Each structure stands twice: as structure tokens, then as C-alpha cells.
Amino acid sequence: MPVADESLLNRVASKLGEPPSYAGDTVKGSLLTAAAASYGSKPTGDEATQPTGFDPGAAALFEAVVESAYLVAYADGEFDATEQQAFQHVVLSACEDRVAESQVKALLADLADQLEEDGMDKRIKMVARTVNRPEHAEEVLRMAALLAHVSGGVSAEEHAVLEKLTREFQLDPEALERALGEAESALEG
User: Fold this and answer.
1) Rounded distance, CA 141 to CA 180, Å?
2) Domain coordinates of the chain in residue numbers?
3) pTM, whole model, 2 decimals?
4) Is residue 102 exposed (0-12), middle (13-18) or buried (19+ Cβ within 10 Å)?
5) Three-class DSSP labels, the chain
6) Does residue 118 contact residue 126 with C-beta atoms inside 8 Å?
7) CATH architecture of the domain with residue range 6-187
8) Tens of pLDDT along 27-69?
């Protein structure tokens, strides 16, 4: 699928960093940006014993958010270098430098390996096991729908993966329609 122009990529990244329209006034950022702060402080090497502010639960949530969008992006059976570069750009921009490019590249490589080993259905189940709060699940659907627009809108294959995620999250079908509507209205203009 063709990847969108830079203007759309920047709009998607901006919307990924914002809370959904239905969030309360006290919510200042998206689930992705909140979880990215912890994921970005993940200790590596010698600093593993140093206090870093790392929260494993938030980091797992970040990985699940990115994986859900990755699974939707891979719905058509391919995720070529151009799509991967656009995906990385959008995620990094939305996270406002809280996560390093090398971390996102490594995460995408891990997700590709896991998908190849486990298959789509098992990976969807694994995401749903991590995202266990309904409000988080709705936000994950919204972000996955936003990222689907990077490749020209939500295709039938991508919609089918979003439907599977919705079922595994045990949300009603209207939650998916709200997420899709939110993504579409956020990107209009």
C-alpha cells in the first residue's frame, strides 16, 4: 500500500500524542505518550541497577499499543521498508523523543519475529492480555486506526484485524466504530 505524504504523517503523529476527544479535561496526552515515558527509561547494560523511573507495566502497555498498530499495519501480509520507516517516524514523533529510534527499531524487529513465530491470532490475544482496562483498549483501537491511515486509510484487511482486537478486548462493536470515527475526524482537513 502507498504510504501517505509527510503532511499526513505529521498529522497522524500529532493526533497520536493527543488524548482522544472523549477523554476528560485532566488527561493531557495519549496512552502512547504516557507509556513511552517509562519505556524510554528502560535500563540497558550497566545502568540496569540504577534508578531510572522505569515501570515494567507501563513499558508492557507501550509495547502492546505499538504491537496492536503493527498488527493492523501488517494485516495485508506485508510491512515493507517504506511502511516501516513511516510507522517509526509517526511513533517517534508522537512520543516526543521519550523513546529512542533504536528502541523502536528493536521493538519492531521483535514484533516481526513474534508474529512470524506465533501468527496473527495469538499475537492479538497477547495484546489483549496486556491491555486489560476498557478505556485503554478503546484508546489502543483509536491509535491503531490512526496509524492505519498512514497507508491510505483503513483497508478491509486492517478492519478485520481491528475487529479481532475489539473482540479480544471484549468491547462492543460500537467501540471500534467510535475509534474509527475519532481517527477519521481527527485527520480531516
Assistant:
1) 8
2) 6-187
3) 0.84
4) exposed
5) CCCCCHHHHHHHHHHHHCCCCCCCCCCCCCHHHHHHHHHHCCCCHHHHHCCCCCCHHHHHHHHHHHHHHHHHHCCCCCCCHHHHHHHHHHHHHHCCCCCCHHHHHHHHHHHHHHHHHHCHHHHHHHHHHHCCCHHHHHHHHHHHHHHHHHHCCCCHHHHHHHHHHHHHCCCCHHHHHHHHHHHHHHHCC
6) yes
7) Orthogonal Bundle (1.10)
8) 677 777 778 877 776 555 554 444 456 678 888 999 999 999 9
